[in-house]
Specification:
single chain; PH-domain like; 2 domains; 4 helices
Length: 165
């Protein structure tokens, strides 16, 4: 079977937003240099707990606990709230997203993104995250008509040197 392009089509709805947020947040959390700040927070919290037990200081223990709760829970809630507001205000909300992918790049409507403008293509489970300089695209597995088209998309991304495994 010879393909020259891949057509991707899906509805940008709340279910896809939630899948994107959770997968992208976890991916960025694990692959971002900011995770080292998290390690610093954990180290500070551990020193705080040790100091709290040695000195009997509840204030240090409380501060350390608040630091950890913020880093692992509150930060995610705040980021998701902001992203959800952007989703609700988006003109693409509940609209069909159609992308055409070929050897030159990705086209959406009249806008074309060349492979050279794409930073990386990240498979996240069965779904795909495309990160470009100006915008990111989330492609749920249901956006492909077949497994062959998804495989061809990945081979195009790999050929362009953008596929991250």
């Amino acid at each position: 079977m010879s393909m020259s392009k891949v057509k991707i089509s899906y509805i940008w709805d709340e279910q896809n937003f939630n899948k994107l947020f959770n997968k992208a947040y976890n991916y960025q959390f694990k692959n971002s240099p900011r995770r080292y700040i998290g390690w610093l927070f954990i180290a500070l919290a551990q020193f705080g707990v040790v100091a709290a037990f040695k000195k009997g200081s509840i204030a240090i223990l409380l501060f350390s606990s608040i630091l950890l709760i913020y880093w692992y829970y509150i930060k995610k809630i705040l980021v998701k709230r902001r992203a959800y507001k952007e989703f609700l205000d988006s003109p693409l909300k509940d609209k069909r997203i159609e992308l055409i992918v070929n050897r030159d790049g990705i086209e959406q409507g009249g806008t074309k993104i060349l492979w050279s403008d794409i930073e990386e293509v990240v498979p996240i489970g069965d779904d795909i995250l495309i990160v470009s300089k100006n915008r990111s695209y989330y492609i749920p597995s249901c956006g492909f008509e077949s497994i062959e088209e998804r495989s061809y998309f990945k081979s195009l991304a790999k050929e362009a040197g953008k596929l991250t495994l």
